[in-house]
Amino acid sequence: MEFKHVSVLLKETVDNLVTVSDGIYVDGTLGGGGHSREICSRLTEKGRLIGIDQDEAAITAASERLKPFGNRVTIVRSNYREIGSVLKELGIPKVDGIMLDLGVSSYQLDEPRRGFTYKDENAPLDMRMDTRQSRTAKDILQDYSEGELYRIIRDYGEDRFAKNIAKHIVAARQKKPIEKTGELNEIIRNAIPAKVRASGGHPAKRTYQALRIELNRELEVLQDSLDEMIGLLNPGGRLCVITFHSLEDRIVKSNFKKNENPCTCPKDFPICVCGKKSLGKVVTRKPILPSEEEILNNKRSKSAKLRVFERNGQEITD
């Protein structure tokens, strides 16, 4: 299957990201290379792009799409949490911009064998973004306790029927392992009242989201990576993050705010004595949202939010 993915908030992201035409930029979630191609088109011959992705299919697709830019592009198969190590190996101490397009790609959703979607009833419950790892969504369904399943479906899926879904999963797996998407779909249908199923979207949507986030440690990786990314920016460099989930957006918003104003002194102190200095400013006081036209053309862009942080204009010295 061809790797197809429509880049969300493409112009808005690259407009905010590329401020130096001969700079070095990192696309930490390369995907099919849509954002990266637009970044490269804005750079001079001296500019450089580093693309990072853990998905083998994405690497293959992006390598072909970015081939016209030759050796100005370096593609690395890794997770963006390893960005510091990747840049160190390439001999790059600082960059002029980093972008993340979080969540799952259209290709991953549309390729049944990847197991990300509830729409195919006979797909394996895989959901790995990096197929080099051994654990799959099937293992979570089999191994997690009822309490753990309830927690992830409640927190990551934000499903009000999380407790009942977890209960039904545990009851079903005692009879036989849950191996196919259709089996999980039926379990979830039985756990949700018929009236709710009739009025809402697909009843399994939130549980699939929760399993994917848990399996790939998406929120943990994001939480642990943002500070390092800001630290890797040159003065004036920008970090642009596109989120699709309220928990992702909350993490980004909170982190950017903390890095803009890290002071922990009580508000009634006349001067700061904690010594924590601002690393930059939040460019987007409110997130940038897709236009009505974009949502009409790509319904998966509906929940997208772009936030931008800019590193201080000069290096901070102790």
UniProtKB/TrEMBL annotation:
Q: Where does S-adenosyl-L-methionine bind?
A: 33-35, 53, 80, 101, 108
| Class of this enzyme | transferase
Q: Name one GO molecular function term.
A: rRNA (cytosine-N4-)-methyltransferase activity
Give GO terms for biological process: rRNA base methylation
* The reaction(s) this protein catalyses: cytidine(1402) in 16S rRNA + S-adenosyl-L-methionine = N(4)-methylcytidine(1402) in 16S rRNA + S-adenosyl-L-homocysteine + H(+)
Where mainly found?
cytoplasm
Pfam families attached to this UniProt entry: Methyltransf_5
| InterPro entries in alphabetical order | RsmH, SAM-dep_MeTrfase_MraW_recog, SAM-dependent_MTases_sf
Compartments it resides in: Cytoplasm
UniProt keyword terms in alphabetical order = Cytoplasm, Methyltransferase, rRNA processing, S-adenosyl-L-methionine, Transferase
Q: Does the keyword Cytoplasm apply?
A: yes
Domain of life of the source? Bacteria
What is the protein's known function?
Specifically methylates the N4 position of cytidine in position 1402 (C1402) of 16S rRNA.
The family annotation for this protein states: Belongs to the methyltransferase superfamily. RsmH family.
Please state what the protein is called: Ribosomal RNA small subunit methyltransferase H
- According to its UniProt entry, this protein's organism is Candidatus Eubacterium avistercoris
**Source organism phylogeny:** Bacteria, Bacillati, Bacillota, Clostridia, Eubacteriales
